[in-house]
Amino acid sequence: MDALRIILQVLLVLTSGFLTLLILLHKGKGGGLSDMFGGGISMGAGSSGVAERNLNRITIAFALVWTVVIVLLGLIQKVS
Questions:
Q1: Which residue windows are transmembrane per the record (predicted)?
Q2: Mean of pLDDT values over 8-36
């Protein structure tokens, strides 16, 4: 159980860091760091570019992994 807890804690730290970076890459009202990578290419207020859509998908995937790790760590803590 200790090895699983350590693995989940390391995964939590990694996903937290990547999730923070991914959120900072998103375009805000005035643009963002994603403009450097092609997110600002699209024209029009309602549409987003391919880079922004892919960034959204990756961010959602990391958020789901982060959530699952949090729940698993909570369950391990409850069982112990």
A1: 6-25, 57-76
A2: 84
